[in-house]
Structures are given as C-alpha cells and as structure tokens.
Amino acid sequence: MLSELRQFYTPENIALALSPWALVLIGFVSLITNFGKYLTWSSVLYWWFYVRQKDGAATKKFQRAWPDRRQIENEIRWSLKSCVVFSVMTVVIYYCALKGWTSIYLNVADRGWGYLCLSIVLMLFLHDIYFYVTHIFSHRISWIFRKFHRIHHQSGNPTPFADIMFHPVDAVVHVGFIPLFLFTLPLHPIAIGLFVTLVLVVNALGHIGYEMFPRFFNHSLIVHWINRASLHNIHHSHVHYNFGLYFRFLDRLFKTEKVLDVDLPKSDLDVSRTAS
Ligand SMILES: [Zn+2]
Ligand SMILES: [Zn+2]
Asked: Which of 45-49, 149-153, 210-214 has the highest mean pLDDT?
C-alpha cells in the first residue's frame, strides 16, 4: 500500500501538501492525536493500577505513598506542553520528508525485511546511547538540571501521567533522536512506526509505579541486560542512578546503576524510604 502512495508524489500534490494551510492542518491533527493518545493511555493505566486494582495491586507497588491531586495535575500540565512540542516536531518532520530531505524509503523490497528488522534493533541501541548521554548531562550539568530536567523529577513517586512530563526544552532533547535518525538512517515507515510505539510503551511502563514482569522473569538472563520499571522508579526516587532507557549496559559500564531486589517483601521494597 505504501508503494502505491508513491504515484501521488506528483509536483502539484507535493506543493499542495506543503502549503501553509496543509501544515497548520497537520499540526492541528497531530496536536489532537497527541493529546488524545496521552490522556487516554495514561488515564487507562491510572484507572487500572491506582483505582480499580488499588488494593489488590498495592503489594507490587514500588513506593508506599499514593500521589495526591496536586502532583497529578502538575504531571498533566507539563505533559500537555510536551504534546505541543511533539506536534511541532511532527510538522517539521512532515515538511522535511515531503521535501525529500530525509532518508525514508517506501518500498520494503528496496532493502528487504532483514534490513527493516535490523534498522529497528539499531534504532533501539542508538536511542539508548542517545538517551543515556543526554540524560546524564541533564543531571551532571547543574544549571541544565535546575532549569529544565528538574521538572521531570518533581514527581519522586511518578504516576502513569508523568511519562512525558518535561520542560519544553527537555522535550525537544527527548524527541531529538527522531530527526537524527530520519536524516542519517534509511528507514521504512513500518520500522519508524514500530520503534515509536515501543518507545511509548517502554516510557509508560517506567512510570506506572509497579513491576510489570512476572517474578520468574526478574531472575532470567534477559532481564539482566534490559531495563525494567523498578530501575526507572529508583531514578525518580534517588535521582543519581539508572539513566538508561531500554538496556542496562551503560549504567553498568559507568557504575550508575542502583538495583533493589524486587522479590523483597513490600516493606523492604519501598524505595522512597531507602537512602541513596
Ligand atoms: Zn532524570
Ligand atoms: Zn521518568
């Protein structure tokens, strides 16, 4: 279907799609989509874990405290600003893609399914490095932390509403990897779509406040190298540890990892009471 779209790439259609009104429309649709996606996804997770399953699931919660209304309103307020940043970024990418400035390709056969899968894996590793480096600088350079990244850490005990709670400048840094990839790596829209979906899921899981993996999984070899919700929760409660996103390689290499045994009883697992 994507290859059929290529027949619409006539100079007249592209000029129409790049007109100011078309860009405003794309921005508006993107904004509504981002608002809807964020509010729906976060509300469903919040309702399930903090309302519906509150008593039953509480034994798996990392921190004992429950968020108050002011914290949640703060998370939503900053996250909606991030949605605006993401929408502006979408318009910029849309414009660049139609101008032919990106390395997006539409025909899978041009490079094959093997390359398409490899490009997703490559993006995950490169994004993990990008995230670790920008994240650790956001903490180690104190004025950057004070002015921008501190917003994300206003929630020491985050809820599902905190996953895109960023200062707008921090939000630009966070989505900066997308144009970086689009201008350097040949990418198919399927790979981009799957990768972006994975980013959203991993980011959301990191802020739920619960470990989502079953217990046996916590001792498996794969979990030894991939990130999990408890590690990012510790990042919120202890700040100076666990800067990675998907993997644990860099935190281990640079000795910035802090782990608490998720099999401990709830009273020992309460990271909010553990000194760093
Ligand atoms: Zn941080
Ligand atoms: Zn976070």
From this structure: 149-153
